[in-house]
Amino acid sequence: MLKINNLHVSIDDKPILNGINLTVNKGEVHAIMGPNGSGKSTLASILAGKEEYTITKGTVTFEDKDLLALNPEDRAREGIFLAFQYPVEIPGVTSTNFLRTALNQIRQYKGVGQLDAVQFLKLMKEKMRLVEIDQSLISRPLNEGFSGGEKKKNEIFQMAMLEPKLAILDETDSGLDIDALKVVANGVNKLKSKENATIVITHYQRLLDYIIPDFVHVLYNGQIVMSGDKNLAYELEQKGYDWIKEDVAAQEKTS
Amino acid sequence: MTYQKKNTTTLDNPSNAINNQIAVLTQKMLGESANNINQIKVLARKAFDKNGLPKPKDEEYRYTDIVSSLKQVFDFSSDIPTTEVSDVDRFQTHPIYKENVYIIGLINGQMTPELCVLPDKKTGIIITTIEEGINTFPKEVESVFGQIANIETDNFVSMNTMLTKTGVFIQVKENVVPDKPIVFMNFIDSSKGNAIIHPHNICKIGENSEISIIELYEESGTFPVFTNSVTEILADNNSKIHHFKLQNFHDQNIHIDNTAISAQRDAIINTYTFSFKGKIIRNNLNILLEQENSEAHLYGLYIANNKSLIDNHTIVDHKAPKCFSNEKYKGIMDDYSKGVFNGKIYVRPNAQTTNAFQSNHNILLSTTAKIYAKPQLEIWADDVKCTHGCTTGQINKDHLFYLRSRGISEHDARTLLLQAFASDIMDKVKIPFLKAKISRIIKTRLHPQNN
User: Fold this and answer.
1) Same domain for B258 and B372?
2) Cβ–Cβ of B406/A162 closer than 8 Å?
């Protein structure tokens, strides 16, 4: 589904990603972990199409299409969804108007008919139940005055509405208490299927107790330095990242 | 620098020719009748003789050169050209006549009975022409005419006042709340020649009364129009006023609106100024909080494109203690348009425990659009809470990316964000037909092609 091949990215001439290789197939859950500043969020932003970055080398294909050639809206229409680490508050834009516009533009791109107001509201109610989000949040302007937890829940709700093929959760667990974390993880699990895939970017193993990954990758200095199964996450939780840093430093010395 | 009428060496100043034409014109008019109102007109005339039209370096008109534009097209040497309007019928089909409102129908500033839908006089609401007002209710008119607007210091107010022929007199007696808004439906017809219109409206709102006034314009004809209107409103104790203006003119038209409102004890003034199109739109809005516990809310939204110039000059004058004012103006400028916002707040020495707030936010959509924003606070009292904020920027990139990352096209995302920017001003409009009308204009206008 997603193939990242030797991806190099810099911002203002400062290299951030230094040769990422990653393949994600449908039905899989990948966790990307790593210390602060390792490039995790950059990778998420790049996949969603944020424009401030310069891609210096490498390719990314999504369902055999050149992802990097698509603008952000077409990536979303192809089925990529980024749950933001810091969802923005947009006063004056109502959640329903925003979501209906988004959903219908995606449907139009796919060549399926648009939803009218009644159909849309029905779908919204159904998905609200699914991800356990309160009606009062949806009737407010987009994320305005939301708590951290409410914003994250809203991201998952949008994901449920737009039904992406590949969901990228960028530190969705940050700032959540355990109850909110469970609700969010629950939502993600309910949306999981054999046809879609999830990339979970996180700092802590905690979230991975609820969203069980098939693969865990460690990102450090802009590269994936280690991959494994969910047990790698436990190991990281116990030992921290220092041993990986030392490992990498040692390897660099010998090479 | 004082302008001297007989100084022949300043012929290069475009205002001279117009000043001279107007002087001759006024002389003719002032000879026509003699009453107390005429004394005011004479004062205005004297002030105009002294000050003339704004000169290019006048601080108040630094960014808004009205005189050069006037000189290019308008001829003031003849009497105000009145356009022959034989077929009133065609105005009667205007959609406003389907709305549940009172209508003061005016053709080129002249109140036209066939186009009016007025409240019954028994309701305590009197609406007449200013001429009839002067004849029938001279004391009422005199208590307002030239008393609230600055006839001696505002050039265009002087000009209007000395030339006043048309206009409307509204009196709402005490304890009256009209059941519907009152619409000034201004039909401007410039199909047979340039139109120059100087309406002077007088509104006297009685104690405990509440009124909504809506100023609408419908233009026909391709010749340029110059409107220089003055509206003076006296809001008596504990009265409440909602004053809406919708300014969406043809590209070649020049519109100057001078509105001065005097708020007495416990009065509440709400003004809503929506400016969208015109060669030049200049609003001089002066709110005088004259007695304790009076309150003013000034809302403005301007969206300019092409080469439009939209200039909002506001004054909130806190003259008494315990008054409150809140001003919020927002603007979106595109293409080669120019915006000016000048917001003055005066807090006079005895106006203790004043609360005064002001904000002005602008979005520039093109590199060639300009905004000149200047908050100006002058405070003489010491127990005062007064804040102002002013920002100018582009569409927020993070917001744009967020919407696009959900599958919304860049174009539609921009439109959504601009509508959102305008929405808090729009939300202040509680009259459904007016809100719908303004929303329609905004929707058709907010299709940015730049960037």
Assistant:
1) yes
2) yes
Question: Quick one: CA torsion of A43, A175, A233, A247, rounded to 10 degrees?
Answer: 60
CB contact under 8 A, A82 and B407: no
Q: Which amino acid is at B141?
A: V
Same domain, B410 and B329: no
Closest residue in A to B395 (Cα–Cα): A90
**Orientation angle between helical segments B66-73 and B14-30, nearest 10 degrees:** 70
Tell me, yes or no, whether B217 and B142 share the same domain. yes
Domain interval for residue A236: 2-92+164-254
pLDDT in tens, B181-226: 999 999 998 888 888 899 999 999 999 999 999 999 999 989 999 9
Tokens 């303004």 belong to B438
Show the tokens assigned to B395. Answer: 């569409």
B160 with B202, same domain: the answer is: yes
Tell me if chain B has a CB within 8 Å of the CB of A50.
Answer: yes
| Residue A158 belongs to some domain of the structure | no
B264 and B347 in a single domain? The answer is: yes
B417 is in which domain, residue-wise? 398-451
Report CB contact under 8 Å: B410, A73.
yes
R_g over Cα of chain A: 18
- CATH number, domain of A26, equals 3.40.50.300
Q: Number of residue pairs across A and B with CB atoms under 8 Å? A: 78
pTM for the whole structure: 0.88
Indicate the residue of A72, A101, A141 with minimum beta-carbon distance to B405: A72
B412/A158 touch (CB, cutoff 8 Å), yes or no:
no
CB contact under 8 A, B404 and A92: no
Per-residue pLDDT, B9: 36
Interior CA angle at B186 toward B182 and B192, to 5°?
Answer: 165
- Of B186, B61, B203, B220, whose CA–CA distance to B141 is shortest? B203
Show Cβ contacts of residue B370 under 8 Å, excluding neighbours closer than 6 positions.
B333, B337, B338, B339, B364
What is the β-pairing status of strands B168-172 and B102-107?
unpaired
Q: Tell me, yes or no, if A97 comes closer than 8 A to chain B by beta carbon.
A: yes
Amino acid at residue number B202: I
Alpha-carbon distances of B176 from B1, B146, B236, rounded to whole Å = 49, 25, 12
Q: A171-222 pLDDT, tens per residue?
A: 998 888 888 899 889 989 999 999 999 999 998 888 999 999 999 999 999 9
CB neighbour list of residue A81: distance below 8 Å, 6 or more residues apart: A158, A159, A162, A164, A166, A167, A168, B405, B406
Neighbours of B332 (CB within 10 A): 26
Structural domain includes residue B134: yes
